[in-house]
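Re: weekly structure request thread

Next one in the queue (138 aa):
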Amino acid sequence: MKTINVCLFFNIVTDRPIQWVNCSTWTDQLSIDKVEANMWPPKRNQLLTVSVPGVAKESFIYGSYNKTIVYRGYSLPSIIGSLDDLGIKLPTSPGPLKMIIFNSTIPEVAPQGQYDIYVKAYEQDEAEILCVKISWEF
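Done, posted below.
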């Protein structure tokens, strides 16, 4: 009698694509077609960095952003800051540009549920540069 050993290997992929919406309009100053993250889905107690590469249609001398986190339909206080906070060296020139729209460690105590992050950026004349919504669920 012969014995045959059989090994089976399964490659299970648990990563999901980033859930994001480009809420920009055709007049926005940054043309984007993807959102990048250092890991996805987000994990508690780990640093999550989300960036938006794109092409700037014109120069920005200065500007601001508004970031709002919504948990289960309830908005947390908005974070407002300078475009410098998004990793942009100002002033910019037309061409390739990357904004870091989220860079934070997800707390171990983050509750279960749906999270949505809305980021809007504006240039010196208050024209919208971009609008992006990213979502995940624990």
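Residues 19-137 form a domain with the Immunoglobulin-like fold (CATH 2.60.40.770). The chain has a mean pLDDT of 87.
Next request, please.
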